[in-house]
Amino acid sequence: MKIITKNEKETFNLGMEVAKKLKGGELVLLSGDLGAGKTVFTKGLAKQLKLNPRKVNSPTFIVLKEYELENKNIHKFIHIDAYRISSIDELNSIGFNEYILRNDAIVIIEWAEKIKELKKIKKTIRVKIKYLSEDSREVSLNY
Ligand code: ADP
Ligand code: MG
User: Fold this and answer.
1) What is the pTM of this model?
2) 5 close to ligand 1 (CB < 6 Angstrom)
């Protein structure tokens, strides 16, 4: 499914819509260039899951941020920025393989295209954001 968003708010709202479908245990792979809107989308996911979107920012220098959630089934929100990561081994060394086994966690990866092994994982939600013009983006969603 492809959707054109005309401003930041629309991408944020799309993140909220996608989060409504989450049950826990999902892996969300975000791809797109710098400034595409991956973090904006992630903030929308956060908002819907009752995590203050202001707390969520690009964890570029931190790689992984873990948040506790006050939800019935989803208890952890794991936000990863893979910009400086190049292999699945590096991801696993920070706990990725353990997080994705948890049914009460949502794992979100920005720059997922940097790690080719992620393509082999089944049942991912893939979100590709393409810059069209200053305020518009093409968001491709694949479940
Ligand atoms: P990324 O995480 O992909 O590097 P960010 O989400 O941090 O990108 O930043 C996206 C930037 O693009 C923000 O400054 C935002 O205001 C701007 N922007 C403009 N139009 C849109 C849109 N339609 N969707 C998302 N962001 C947009
Ligand atoms: Mg970002």
Assistant:
1) 0.96
2) yes
